[in-house]
Design brief:
The protein is built from no helices and ten strands. The N and C termini lie close together (11 Å). The protein has strands at residues 2-7, 10-15, 19-23, 32-35, 38-42, 48-50, 59-69, 73-79, 84-90, 93-103. It has 104 residues and is mainly β.
């Protein structure tokens, strides 16, 4: 059984016991989070349930494992012939969540 949830403007395919990195959530480590924006659920018998856009009453429950930052990416702006260069880095923060249950 798995579900497709939406959080932080992105969609994730999650199953019970999975550990996923989602966009940063404002909650402490060890806290329980509930994702109620469930787009689809696939049951064990092969049955798929789709929402329009979300499934009414469905939710995915998870526990926050850790907070962190992704690898640094380098951003480089360059304009030729005018000696204009700008380089800086960015590290996107994330929250690691362990999925405990899919309900709905």
């Amino acid at each position: 059984m798995y579900a497709i949830v939406e959080t932080g403007g992105k969609q994730y395919r999650v199953g019970a016991g999975d550990v996923v990195n989602v966009e940063k959530l404002n909650c402490a480590e060890g806290e329980t989070v509930v994702f109620d924006s469930v787009l689809a659920i696939a049951r064990d018998g092969g049955e798929m349930v789709f929402g329009a856009p979300y499934i009414e009453g469905a939710k995915v429950v998870g526990k926050v494992v850790a907070h962190g930052k992704a690898r640094k990416i380098l951003v480089f702006h360059y304009k030729q012939k005018v000696n204009e260069r700008k380089r800086y880095g960015h590290r996107q923060p994330y929250t690691r969540v362990e999925i405990q249950a899919i309900e709905g």
